[in-house]
Amino acid sequence: MENSKRxxxxxxxxxxxxxxxxxxxxxxxxxxYSPSDDLETADLVIVNTCCxxxxxxxxxxxxxxxxxxxxxxxxxxxxxxxxxxxxxxxALERLQKRAPHVDIWAGTHNLHDFSALINRVEQGRxxxxxxxxxxxxxxxxxxxxxxKLHANVNIMYGCDNFxxxxxxxHVRGRExxxxxxxxxxxxxxxxxxxxxxxTLLGQNVNSYGKEFSPAYDFADLLHQVDQIPxxxxxxxxxxxxxxxxxxxxxTVAEGKNLCEHFHLPIQSxxxxxxxxxxxxxTREYYLSRVQEIREFIPNASITTDIIVGFPGxxxxxxxxxxxxxxxxxxxxxxxxMYSKRSGTLAAKMExxxxxxxxxxxxxxLMGVQNQESLEWRQHMIGEILEVLVEGPSKTNPERLTGRTxxxxxxxFKGDFETIGSLVNVRIKEAGSWTLIGEVE
Length: 440
Ligand code: 5AD
Ligand code: SF4
Known about the structure:
By secondary structure, the protein is α/β, with parallel strands linked by helices. Helices cover 34% and strands 22% of the residues.
């Protein structure tokens, strides 16, 4: 591969964005590019973008600026900016003006057609394709890179929920579910190539298949995926609390390889704010879902997303979010300051919260959650947990690292021959972010 062209793919944002970036890399591989992480020798640089918060956009704009300098050093390098940020209504023109050095602009609905865009650019043209909706058949997406232990598998695209703060429904379109047989086929083929753990991806996996007739829902899909031989673990994200069914909880409880981990974003603990966010549940309903999970799966790990400083959030509303964290006993929480996204309903709300207040609330929230997470992990000291061995630890190459079924990272003493398989690890210590243990 000495003379082959090289592609560097940079990715920002959620697992959907990562999965899209893998698809793009795979498309370029089929065109003769080999993946690399050295910008200086790249022939093509792809930046798959995120626009969920302003902070992500600022980082990406900084990176696009750096790529301008790269292009000054190497006129032949082609630059592609793809994904959510490009798909935002009205964004393309603004971005093109700001970054004339970019060769390819492609929105989220144009990724399947990336090879045609590259061909045009290789002939010396600049291209921009941002369709307003998805026209491609969902099933013709190339597979992600094979041979890895873990893979992300899309089961659905888009989102119909329109939470008032969120740009996702505006850039990823309406909800579409992939056919079960196509998903099962993709997973089997990943397993044949050595994959042992998959994460099923959707903005709201609990509404998977709602358009199918005869009825077939997410629990049915999980049950079928659980029958695939040699697949050791099945994860899924994200669960919307309003659609988390008893059937799903029971399916996970009874499953073989279905990991007992629910990512269940609460966003706020105040009913007033939840209503303004258009989340369609109350804190009481949410807590009843948490209780239901804990009843059927006592050791389940529950993680969440929380936004502070949503328009109109009073000190009292914020206190309710803090109280919620203590009641739900999250293993982990991803906490964010509200970021105004133009085109969303919340952006037009009047009582926006100042940056200072948002920062202060975020600090307090993170402090409470760090304590909760530590307590969660400390409970595991002395337990023997099943770990899928991923490889040497980055911080200590003499130790191995892997994850529990609850998705906790474990660093442990063990045999390097076990990489790629399941081992039982006795937990000895709970560090700030990881568990520390020894193979039994
Ligand atoms: N500001 C801050 N956080 C947001 N999220 C989505 N939109 C915004 C926004 N405008 C968060 C939510 C979601 C996670 C993926 O990102 O918590 O669950
Ligand atoms: Fe955004 Fe709400 Fe859809 Fe999640 S469910 S992607 S927060 S609109």
